[in-house]
Amino acid sequence: MRTGISNSAGEKDSFRTTRWSLILNSADVQAPESRAALSELCRLYWYPLYAFARRSGYDASDAEDLTQSFFLHLLEKEAFSRVGPEKGKFRSFLLASFKNHMSVSWYKGRAAKRGGGYQVVSLDTESAEHRYQLEPADDDLPPDRVFDARWATTLLSRVTTRLHEEYVSQGKGQTFGRLKVFLVKADYEDTNSYRQIAEELGLTAGGVKTLVFRLRKQFAAALREEVAQTLADPAEVDSELHALCDALLASSAGYVPEDKDIGNS
């Protein structure tokens, strides 16, 4: 399975075997490759579940307990034997399974607190709680929509990080740091902004426009690839992107990549 960023014709091949389809199509979910793929997906997307639990009324400690114990449960093969029609999307499967786990776990008095002492996925809960407290306080937004919006921002942050790492590896970290604003701020695109960045980078304004165009193409290709990794059917990439965009708009939480998301150049 390729994980590199590409917008060439070969990109289609990377969609054929995704992390999620590898798990679903495996005869043994406990097989090393399937377990590794699941662990990676959980590591990347645990925060939306934490935010869902918090928005559902659980305090920070209980949200951490539920999230960690859920991952232990998820790594059991039985969790996949009950996957319904929503299995095509890791996002839908994860939320449906977590809802069930929340009610069962709470009913049993949290017997599996923090996964019985076994940490399946490393959760930076202190950072997560700080992040949660900074989120827009829209009391009318249901937990499901909060989950979808946080899922979308996690994807976007992941893609921004990947692009940043690629630019740094090419010795172009400063270039990415100055151009990333064009990914999210359409109103920033004017003659003055191009001229200012051109002076800083030692380029022409036309050269900056070309770099911005390339960056946007790279970002779009990387985002599609990242979304595809959470789907069983690559044909659903467009509909999944549309759904996540709607969730972001509904949450009034537009995404702006910041230094904390990508590290320093």
Descriptive notes:
The chain is mainly α and 265 residues long. It has two domains: 16-134, no CATH class; 139-265, no CATH class. Helix content is 64%, strand content 0%. It is built from 13 helices and no strands. The chain has helices at residues 11-14, 19-25, 32-55, 60-74, 78-81, 90-107, 125-134, 143-169, 173-179, 191-201, 205-228, 237-251, 259-262. Helix 8 packs across helix 12 (237-251). The chain is globular and about 60 Å long. The two termini are 29 Å apart. The model is unreliable at 1-15, 111-118 and 254-265 (pLDDT under 50).
Précis, in short:
This protein is an all-alpha fold and 265 residues long. 64% of the residues lie in helices and 0% in strands.
Write the layout of secondary structure elements.
Blueprint: H1 11-14, H2 19-25, H3 32-55, H4 60-74, H5 78-81, H6 90-107, H7 125-134, H8 143-169, H9 173-179, H10 191-201, H11 205-228, H12 237-251, H13 259-262
Helix pairs in contact: 2-3, 3-4, 3-8, 4-6, 8-9, 8-11, 8-12, 10-11
pLDDT averaged residue by residue: 78
Strand content: under 5%
Count of spatially separate domains: 2
Number of strands: 0
Pick out the low-confidence regions.
Answer: 1-15, 111-118, 254-265
Outline: globular
Counting DSSP H or I runs of 4 or more residues, the number of helices is 13
For the biggest sheet, the summary is: none
- Compute the gyration radius: what is it? 20 Å
N-C termini distance? 29 Å
Structural class: mainly alpha
- The helix/strand series, from N terminus to C terminus, equals HHHHHHHHHHHHH
Helix percent band:
55-70%
